[in-house]
Amino acid sequence: MTFMPAADAAAPRIRDEGTAVAHPNIALVKYWGKRDESMFLPVTGSLSMTLDIYPTTTTVRLTAGPADVVVLNGNTATGTAHSRVERFLDMIRGKAGRDERAEVISTNTGPTGAGLASSASGFAALAAAAAAAYGLNVDGRELSRLARRGSGSACRSIFGGFVVWHAGEGDGEAGDRSSYAEPIDGDVLDPALVVAVVDNAAKAVSSRDAMRLTCATSPFYRPWAEASAVDLDEMRMAIARRELSAVGEIAERNALGMHASMLMARPSIRYLSPQSVAILDRVLALRADGVAAYATIDAGPNVTVLCARSDTPRVDAALREVGDFVDTRVAHLGPGAALVPGGDR
Ligand code: DP6
User: Fold this and answer.
1) Which residues does UniProt assign to the signal peptide (predicted)?
2) Ligand 1 centroid vs 153 CA: distance in angstroms?
3) Which of 50, 77, 287, 311 is the 20 to 30 Å CA partner of 102?
């Protein structure tokens, strides 16, 4: 890490800035629950695919102004959206030994806050852009640890392809050092994901609040977390064996188990809608017809279906047939977060 002294107060305008692009990721073995809230340390390890759709582009420009200004999709952020970014920048400023405020301009091309990993692409792009703007010289692993502190799942979007997030050990500083993401070597498997968007609206309960309540109150949480550790080991082996059906089976059971644990929270949390269930039924029907298609669902009603690239047209058509409320997007493995040369957009 490079230590940069605070800029000379007499300087007319501080010009340091960075622009980065990052894509969302969909977990095949989910992250659900923190063992240390302040450090974003997960209870379990998780594994995801970084997508090639819905990129977020973020510019961080240091200013001489008195406060951080955050512009998300053209609107100035206030309340929680602003304070999450400000807290994240405070953490970056602490590490860089600098105290300038920043202007953050972020454009997200996917649905925001609808359970389609917008916080993952958002904080991955912010981490990369802010590290550049504040002069932090970090490698990919360190960048993933920084992104994790904006939103846990963001640590996985630092890398492309299949990515594992190690839960790490301990809390506080020790946990922080050992909890990072890393890519799984090689183009081991190259499937498609058909994202069935049934609802674009931002969800009523954030995944942060929902996972806190699930951990604290659901009698199904511990059994899910224990099963998830086994799922992670089996998933890594299934990916290495290039066995799409095993990857899909593990992903589907892991996601449905996570939703079962939420249903048992007190009060119960239910992200699944009748439309989500209709898609799940169609996935079962596809399998009965011999198509290897498997569903996963994050903290929202939208369903993502894993299948072989060659089956994509059939799966896509079958999901659209479920009703006019379904809009689909096909995704494949996408790249990790990257700085945009030249910075300014
Ligand atoms: C269901 O990463 O959004 O998508 O760390 O509190 O910001 P915070 O939570 P977040 O949770 C993602 C939950 C999930 C599963 C996953 O991506 O692994």
Assistant:
1) none
2) 5
3) 50
